Each structure stands twice: as structure tokens, then as C-alpha cells.
Amino acid sequence: MQRQLGIRERSAPMASSRPVARFWEWGRNIVCVGRNYAEHAKEMGSALPAQPLFFLKPSSAYVREGSPILRPYYCSNLHHEVELGVVMGKRAQAVSQEAAMEHVAGYALCLDMTARDTQEECKKKGLPWTLAKGFSTSCPVSDFVPKNRIPDPHKLKIWLKVNGKLRQEGETSSMIFSIPYLISYISEIVTLEEGDLILTGSPKGVGSLEVNDEIEAGISDVLSMRFKVAQQIRRA
Ligand SMILES: O=C(O)/C=C/C(=O)CC(=O)C(=O)O
Ligand SMILES: [Mg+2]
């Protein structure tokens, strides 16, 4: 009879043959950090976190260029949040800050699409943010950028335009909690697997989107991506 395995003993997965460059196709976890830029916390009227605040999106939240971002039927204030994504290259369970970057495969540009009116309601009622942050298409994602193309992820400029007008421009050096700190902190609570994605939080300038708006977002000197907003049609 097979004996029961403890959590630590289960942490030696078979080597994956899947290319991490297509992580969004794997059905991997999406971990989102919130209030990681002081000016964004301020514009939301929120206190600065003493420790990272994080929440999850389902893997069905991924959407790629060529497909629209859908405004949920229950939302009348859809917001953009441009964020640097960190793609895990190997399992991380309670890793130290010093070892954290060895677990990173690369980066991606992500949008943490937010039904802001729903989030306000959830905050008032003390409810989880799933309806506000986890709906289908709430995680537009760029191509994968291998780690060797970005020597220092804390020296990047990320930006977002709506219909050609600049809305967000942030320096990743302004994050409250660094990437090694986030990986170390999160991995002690949620084991991170190969292909998992961490959204590192939004800089200031989040704002409303209308149906048919065109979003363009980028990491300066690295990549850019475009998405269009459409309305979710309620079928049920
Ligand atoms: O503080 C709030 O009301 C809202 C915060 C967020 O939506 C958190 C994020 O997703 C973020 O900071 O990126
Ligand atoms: Mg966010």
C-alpha cells in the first residue's frame, strides 16, 4: 500500500516538457499583488499594506492579443491596471528572498482588469474580490520575455494608453515590496509552480474604459500589446 506523502515530499514534480514561454496555455495560477505602489494606494483611498496583499484570478482569466477584453454584464465601471508579471520557472515553496530569483523564468506585461464598481461593493460588504477581479478575460497578457532580456526587473517603465492618450506610466523601482520579497512571502503561503504568474501591482493612473476603447500598453524598450474592449453578452 502506498504511504501518505507530506506536503514537502510532494514538492518534487516531474520535469515538464511544456515550454514556459506559453505559460498562459497551461491553466496555471495567477497571483495578483495589490496596493504595491504608494501612489496607487493613495488614489484608491487605501492604506499602505504592512505586508503584501494578494488575491487570485482563475487561469480562464487569460486573454491574448487578437481577442477582446469583455466588460462583465454586471459592471458599469471597468478599470485598467497595467502591471509587470513575473513568470515562475520552477516550483517555489517557502523560498528565501536570496534564492527567489532562481525560481523566475521571465516576465510578461499584464493588465489586472477590474470591475471597480463591483470591487467597491465587495469592499463595503467585506466580500471577496472574485467578481471584481476574476471574471473571464480579466488578465490580458503579452508574450513571454525570458529573464536574460531583463537584467533588472526593478528598472523598467510600464505604460498604458487608451485611444492613444497616456493614462498610466510607472517605474517598477517604485514597488513597495520587491520581486524577491513578494516571491518569498507568497511562496510561504501558496506554493508557486512552474508557469505560475505573479502580477506585481499597478502604478497610479487607473481609470475607466468604455466598450470599443483601444488599449495599448508596454514595457519601454521591451514590448507592447493592444486590446479592444467589448461587452459581455449575458446568455444564461
Ligand atoms: O485599494 C483598493 O481599493 C483597490 C486596490 C486594488 O485593486 C489592488 C490592485 O489590484 C493593485 O494595486 O494593483
Ligand atoms: Mg492590480
From TrEMBL:
InterPro entries: Fumarylacetoacetase-like_C, Fumarylacetoacetase_C_sf. Its EC number is 3.7.1.5, 4.1.1.112, 5.3.2.2. GO terms for cellular component: mitochondrion. One of its GO terms (molecular function) is metal ion binding. The keyword Ribosomal protein does not apply. SUPFAM superfamilies: FAH. Transmembrane segments: none annotated. It comes from the Eukaryota. It catalyses: a 3-acylpyruvate + H2O = a carboxylate + pyruvate + H(+); 3-fumarylpyruvate + H2O = fumarate + pyruvate + H(+); oxaloacetate + H(+) = pyruvate + CO2; oxaloacetate = enol-oxaloacetate. Belongs to the FAH family. This is Oxaloacetate tautomerase FAHD1, mitochondrial.
